Amino acid sequence: MNMVIMGESMLNQKSRRLHFFAVFIIVICLAKTTHAAEKISAYELLYNEQETGTDIYPVRFTVTNRFIRIDDLSDDSGYILYDDSENKIYSVSHFDKAVLVIPAYKYEKPDMQSKINKVYEPFLNAPKISDKAVYNYRVNSAADPEDVCVDIQLVPDLLPGVTKILREYQKVIAGQQARSLKNTLEEYQTTCFIYNQVFNDGEYYLKGMPVQEWHSNGKKRILTSYKKKDISSKLFERSEDYREYSLD
């Protein structure tokens, strides 16, 4: 009888060890799978930006085929996240522990072809970038040629996947700005204001990747470097503890 009990005990112990080993293997496999899933390919774009009345400050764009994350490297109070699968922008504030959600509002872009002039031409004497020529894209008011709406130096066929999602992001910005137009006094609704600061849907991204930008509101942006790298997918996660709200 004792031999039978001992035999059963040994079998039970062996069974437990095999069960533990199987669970251990599963955990290891899941850990490897999870770890692999956390690394995704992205482009890191570094800019120097400046607005009227401010010093130059560094900004980082991290771009995948689905996400854009924008970090002001001089200020860690939050960041901006765009999810192309949802077509929404999330403006995250660590101070308020809140997230402003901006959906893609529908809007009708006015026909401004008779009110503006566009120039797209090679940027003479500019050094090539990634062995590609630089072009100049400029829009000014037809009524006053010296009233420049936007002046951009860009490179055709540079980072086409990046420019595609950057334009989708800019379309969402334009939708939000269009909703706010009614709050702007008519005397400030100039041609360049309407074209560049309200209905700027990033059509210049169809021409190429901007490397230097000037906008009629005084904002400047210069691309200082870009590189492809593997990053953690956690970079694009939003805290579940933060309150989400919209302006509707």
Strand proportion: 35-45%
Q: Helical proportion?
A: 25-40%
Query: Strands of the biggest beta sheet: in what spatial order?
Result: 7-8-9-10-11-1-2-3-4-5-6-12
What is the typical, i.e. mean, pLDDT?
88
What's the tally of helices? 3
Strands, total number = 12
User: Oligomerization state of this entry?
Assistant: single chain
Number of domains: 3
What's the Cα radius of gyration?
26 Å
Q: Can you walk me through this structure?
A:
With 248 residues, the protein is α+β, with helices and mostly antiparallel strands. The chain has 3 domains: 1-37; 40-105 and 231-245; 116-227, no CATH class. It is built from 3 helices and 12 strands; from the N terminus they run αβββββββββααβββ. It has helices at residues 2-37, 160-180, 191-198; strands at 39-50, 57-63, 67-72, 78-83, 88-93, 98-102, 116-122, 135-141, 148-155, 209-215, 220-232, 243-245. The model is unreliable at 1-11 and 16-35 (pLDDT under 50).
